[in-house]
Amino acid sequence: KIHTANIQDITTSDFPFFRYDDFFKESRKQQVKKSNGSTKKVHFKDELHEMEVDDIEKDDVNDGPALEDEQGLSTHEKELLKIRSQIDLMEKASLEPSKWIMNGEVSASSRPRNSALEVDLDFEHNVRPAPVITEEVTASLEEMIKKRIAEGHFDDVEKPSTLLYKAPREQKEMDENKSKKGLAEHYEDEFKLKTGIAPATLAISDELKNEANDLFKKICLKLDALSHFHFAPKPVIEDMSIQVNVPALAMEEVAPVAVSDAAMLAPEEVLKVKVILKKTRSLHKLSAKEEEPTRRGDTQNHTRRGQPSCGKKKHQIYRKLLLTCYVLQTFGAGGRSAPNSAATAYMLCIANLP
Q: The domain containing residue 49 runs over which residues?
């Protein structure tokens, strides 16, 4: 008895967090009799086996929701609950789809937008990384360069020249079309070429040269048209009329084609039409007496068309008279008779005036 009491004292003092009931529990079949002078039956093997069975049953029950009241649980049961919760979390994490970071190679469509900004990503580069330049590396390079210069070892790899030593061969185009000539016609053409009867056919290079010449001529013609053929001086004309108030060099506007001056004129410059307005009547109404001369025509004040008026006739006769006087004075037959004849002619002209 003393020995058992000492063991209990040791367990309670040294291990305050563990109890006997946590490891050894009484079974239902076991009967413990506590009485004065009674003995206690202990079966260690049976108790251990029953404890294992009870723990397994409790673990199966605790797989569901956690216990609400944890005050009556022992520390071992609490640890079991924590382990069970951790196992549940790990199972959920393994069953749930992993994040895009853990999937390895990820494309832009398989990850959320702007999610790569918060993560340090590793990129594969095909370029060889540059060596880290230190003082030792630079010193070794300088020593190597100085040594080669002193010894005269200039054995660097020379770049091969890209110039061709030989002229490139002319690549002849193969004509895959079936020839329209027969074999006899081919022999005939060859015989004519050898004897010099027929002119030699143009090669491909000659045809290209002719085509290039034609294109160059067309371009030159268009350029000359743009400059309006002012590249050459104008030919000198002997009977050339001199116009005043004309610029010395009249340059035309740039046009895509050569255009003559007649085509550059406006329609108003080609044909000018005189517009003669008819005599309009007065706005107010005229009386019958005032309208008669306008209908019949004012014979006194107006003259017929084609006949000059009296004043014009006098003017014409006066001019003729002066002309005759001048002629008679200068080219008269006699010196004395010339003035008399001029005076008589003047008098006759005045007499004939209406």
A: 2-32+39-97
